Amino acid sequence: MNNLSFDMQLLNTFAALLLLSSFAMLSQRRVVAMVNLLVLQGVLLGLATLLLAWRTGNGHLYVSAAVTLALKALFLPWLLHRLIRRLGVYWDSEPLLNIAATMLVGLLVVIFAFGLAQPIAALATTSTRSSIGIAVAVVLLAFLTMITRRKAMSQVVGFLSMENGLFFGAMSATYGMPMVIELGVALGVLVAMLVLGVFFFQIREQFDSLDLHHLESLKEDK
């Protein structure tokens, strides 16, 4: 039986914590707690990328680690916390499913994700291909978080968590995307967050709430 090296064990630990943080988001109704879990995901992604850069010697991964920590663990969470304070959105309303049902669906989603990732992992040649299943599970759990929440802020946190899963999947399958693509994605996420911030204020001004069911009541003027 082959023993994993210490750096691979540490990388697998980061992957497991990333998956647990996605599960924890499903059980949270406090928006602030969800953002704090997003910070944890950003730190784990940054550390995993830094460890992979040291293991492979790829210089662009050091830049990716720095961008990840700066954007995902510092700036975007700071922006979200600022929006939460300005808008007074601290709690999500009752989700579409209760917590127990959501966690059960989440467990089924993880099982499905690992089965879905097996053919992809078989084609990958990286030493981190075993983490592809976790990356797919994080993406699907984030999507589940989005569709079971009513608050726009919670759905944005789910979207950012989904992007974290996609980034981790690219890193596990191919040791990261080309630097131009990574910087372009980072810039796109940043611009999207700024636009969403303006959008949140417009919703709050019109409806005095960020519950998305208010948007369903909109009718076209005839």
Please, could you describe this protein's structure?
Mean pLDDT is 77; it is low at 218-222. Helix 2 (31-56) packs antiparallel against helix 3 (59-87), helix 4 (99-123) packs antiparallel against helix 5 and helix 6 (152-174) runs antiparallel to helix 7. The protein has helices at 6-26, 31-56, 59-87, 99-123, 132-147, 152-174, 179-207. By secondary structure, the protein is mostly helical. Helix content is 76%, strand content 0%. It has seven helices and no strands.
Topology overview:
Layout: H1 6-26, H2 31-56, H3 59-87, H4 99-123, H5 132-147, H6 152-174, H7 179-207
Helix pairs in contact: 1-2, 1-5, 2-3, 2-6, 3-7, 4-5, 5-6, 6-7
For this entry, give a set of tags.
222 residues; mainly alpha; 7 helices; 0% strand; disordered C terminus
Average pLDDT for all residues: 77
Tally of separate helices: 7
The main pleated sheet reads as: none
Number of strands: 0
Query: What is the distance, rounded to the nearest whole angstrom, between the alpha carbons of the first and last residues?
Result: 72 Å
Query: Which blocks of ≥5 consecutive residues have pLDDT under 50?
Result: 218-222
**Rg, alpha carbons:** 18 Å
- Any idea what the shape is? globular
Percent helix range: over 70%
Following the backbone from N to C, one meets helices and strands in this order, namely: HHHHHHH
Oligomer: single chain
Strand content is under 5%
Structural class by secondary-structure content: mainly alpha
How would you summarize what this structure contains?
The chain is mainly α.
